[in-house]
Amino acid sequence: MLKFWSVLAAGVISSATVLPAYATEWNVSLWGSRRAFTEHVEKLAELVEKDSGGSFTMNISYGGLAPNRENLDGIAAGSFEMAQFCAGYHRDKNRTITVLELPFLGVATLEEELALSLAIYDHPATKGEMAKWNAKLLMPTPLPQYNLVGRGAEPQDLNWFDGIGVRATGGIGAAFGLLGANAVSLSATETFASMESGEIDAVAFAQHAHFSFKTIDLAEWWTSNLNPGTVNCPIVVNVDAYEALSPEHREILDNALEPSLEHFLAYYQDLIYKWDAILEIFNVRKVEIPEAEVTAFRERVAVPVRTKWISDMEASGFPGQELADFADTALEEIRAGKRPMITLR
Length: 345
Prior knowledge:
Blueprint: E1 24-30, H1 39-51, E2 56-62, H2 71-77, E3 82-84, H3 110-121, H4 124-131, E4 135-139, E5 147-150, E6 165-167, H5 170-178, E7 182-184, H6 188-197, E8 202-205, H7 207-212, H8 215-218, E9 221-223, E10 235-238, H9 239-244, H10 247-281, E11 285-287, H11 291-315, H12 320-336
Helix pairs in contact: 1-10, 3-12, 5-11
């Protein structure tokens, strides 16, 4: 149970609950196509419709409502009720969340990523920033550590990155930039064409995205242990739409969050288990970078990127040092059991 999920309603709707006579229909803006990355949203829509007896439904659109870089704007405008966005796509719009994209933050599992995301989402600075977009953070999209696929010479040391064009956003892009790479902040849907044309040599994605956006079709190798960090891509709802729900529909939505996240974790773990077989099918070599080089990478980029992030945040009026320290403390508390970990049913 996700006992730390503070917004979940305490009760469970019984079969005797009288549902509202009117229907509620929400539009949900995603992008790409249905994949591991969107399974919690798909499950949420399924559960909400089932538990409401069909009186609360969600129409999920994959790119038909807004471009992926404009989903937060659409939420602010009330163009749709729910959306997914990635913090690294527009750091100026969601600065506080980008603390979760700092390189080598130390997150080891999907469960830790989920728990840490929830802690940051609940921080007053994050809530305040999202309020400016009339957005409520509903649930995270916990992703594993990113790794690279590429063509040509395989990376075996840090010198390889000098002059390399690589698709990488947020803190991961900043980390590669310190190694001399040309880090290009492309959205997922733009990446295949850029790699195919030779504009970039390598792509930093989580496993599902290499498969879903077909960069694995072009790849010759995949780094198995670089693990520089990940991205954060929350699900948000328009505050007015959420508050306009009937008490019954709001309770149904809130109670569906936990099983939707559990479904996501199980689905994504299954993909990770199958990843070696997928690489073999696509004839992609698994590259293990020498541990000494990974350590050197961490030592070379973690502190400078974090320091600059804090400085930039403070200069923009955000509590950068406080957020960075809070993330470190929260992760320690998660591992110590002071912040409950996720226990799958």
